């Protein structure tokens, strides 16, 4: 009898025994613990609502791998790790709960949104999708097999393995040029392979890389093949788009920085997406489903920056809190 009473209390309180997969009611469930998601958690808690953040991997999103953030207003320099950790601690100190679980799908029920993870089923009045983006792959033979054996998508994570070696960076955006600048400090030589002769990166990044003795630009070129020796990357083959000439460049490491892709397939039933997979939402962060919002890099937008991710987190959280009050 006592056990039955205890079970009823547990079920009613809903968030006592998450490991048993019970429903747990929150005001707002935020999917993703990057800058947008954690900013949303801060604003949700400060609005007096109960927030749960669900994160598949590690907290922090993309910024956690940035060595030096120098374009966040009011903070001249901060490491990405310190920035992300500060956000996490701020959200948790305000009472937000953060769980590391992969979300499989979101259901839009009449009076609530139900979020299914590998381990549990949660429910909330509103959901904020803040899933970010991941690095785009080259999609050429050998890439998958050589990932971790010469092919990398994170220069700050893996760069130290290539100290005093020759490496290549593929891409012409801010990420590629930041990666190249970082690698040029520790590697013997850095080739920047870019498909055009103009960089997409900010002029400040481009200026920083030009004139460095150990950086060679391989422009108008794409990578057509990867070569390996004893299971490790040994060279990349580039193809000049103008002349058609092929060149084999011996490198121990290749850092792929050719942009980003969203991964929102799990939410396609509840949030309309554009052909590239970004969740369609305007500056108000509202998606095609009332009560489901999208914040940060995962939504359709022109400017994807730390500042705009944080701004989206605030906008989405305040909209979600209003939705909760009206529901
Ligand atoms: P990005 O700006 O989209 O640049 C991707 C680069 O890869 C472009 O140069 C593009 O070439 C090239 N590319 C795309 N697909 C390719 C393919 N299949 N094969 C070969 N090359 C390909 O991506 P990102 O550099 O990762 O930056 C993403 C966002 O984060 C941007 O908004 C960026 O400004 C921002 N970001 C900001 C900072 C900062 O503020 N410090 C740092 C990092 C990133 P094309 O130029 O020819 O299209």
Can you give a write-up of this model?
This protein folds into two domains: 12-134 and 260-326, FAD/NAD(P)-binding domain (3-Layer(bba) Sandwich), CATH 3.50.50.60; 143-256, 3-Layer(bba) Sandwich (FAD/NAD(P)-binding domain). The chain contains eight helices and 17 strands. The two termini are 36 Å apart. The chain has helices at 2-13, 35-46, 80-93, 143-146, 155-158, 174-184, 203-209, 306-326; strands at residues 25-31, 51-54, 97-99, 103-108, 113-117, 121-129, 133-135, 151-152, 166-170, 189-193, 215-218, 221-229, 232-240, 246-250, 253-256, 260-262, 292-294. Strands 1, 2, 3, 4, 5, 6 and 17 form a seven-stranded mixed sheet that branches. The chain is α/β, with parallel strands linked by helices and 327 residues long. NADP nicotinamide-adenine-dinucleotide phosphate (NAP) binds at residues 71, 136, 171-176, 178, 195-196, 200, 222, 257-260, 304-305.
Attribute tags:
single chain; 327 residues; alpha/beta; 2 domains; seven-stranded mixed sheet; 17 strands; elongated; disordered N terminus; binds NADP nicotinamide-adenine-dinucleotide phosphate
Largest sheet: 7 strands, mixed
Q: What's the end-to-end separation, in Å?
A: 36 Å
Q: What is the 3D form? A: elongated
Mean pLDDT: 92
Helix content: 25-40%
Output the CATH homologous superfamily of the largest domain: FAD/NAD(P)-binding domain
How many domains make up the 3D coordinates? 2
Give the uncertain stretches in residue-range form. 1-20
Give the radius of gyration: 22 Å
Strand content: 25-35%
């Amino acid at each position: 009898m006592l056990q039955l009473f205890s079970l009823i209390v547990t079920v009613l309180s809903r968030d006592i025994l998450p490991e048993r997969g019970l429903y747990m009611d929150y005001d707002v469930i935020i999917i993703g613990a990057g800058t947008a998601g954690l900013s949303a958690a801060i604003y949700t808690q400060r609005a007096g609502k109960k927030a749960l953040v669900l994160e598949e991997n590690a907290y922090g999103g993309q910024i956690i791998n940035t060595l030096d953030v120098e374009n966040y207003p009011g903070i001249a320099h901060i490491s990405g790790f310190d920035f992300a950790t500060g956000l996490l601690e701020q959200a948790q100190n305000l009472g937000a709960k953060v769980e590391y679980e992969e979300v499989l799908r979101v259901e839009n029920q009449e009076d609530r949104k139900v979020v299914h993870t590998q381990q549990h089923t949660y429910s909330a009045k509103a959901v904020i999708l803040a899933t970010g983006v991941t690095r785009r792959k080259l999609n050429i033979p050998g890439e998958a097999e050589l990932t971790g054996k010469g092919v990398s998508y994170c220069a700050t994570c893996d760069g130290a393995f290539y100290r005093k070696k020759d490496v290549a960076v593929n891409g012409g955006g801010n990420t590629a040029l930041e990666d190249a600048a970082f690698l040029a400090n520790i590697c013997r030589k850095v080739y920047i392979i870019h498909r055009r002769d103009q960089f997409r990166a900010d002029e400040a990044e481009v200026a920083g890389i030009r004139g460095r003795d150990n950086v060679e630009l391989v422009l108008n070129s794409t990578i057509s093949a990867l070569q390996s020796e004893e299971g490790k990357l040994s060279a990349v083959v580039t193809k000049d788009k103008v002349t058609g000439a092929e060149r084999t460049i011996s490198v121990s490491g290749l850092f792929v920085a050719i942009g980003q892709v969203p991964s929102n397939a799990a939410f396609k039933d509840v949030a309309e997406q554009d052909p590239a997979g970004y969740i369609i939402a305007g500056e108000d962060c509202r998606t095609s489903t009332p009560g489901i919002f999208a914040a940060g890099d995962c939504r359709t937008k022109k400017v994807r920056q730390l500042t705009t991710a944080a701004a989206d987190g605030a906008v989405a959280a305040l909209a979600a809190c209003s939705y909760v009050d009206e529901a």
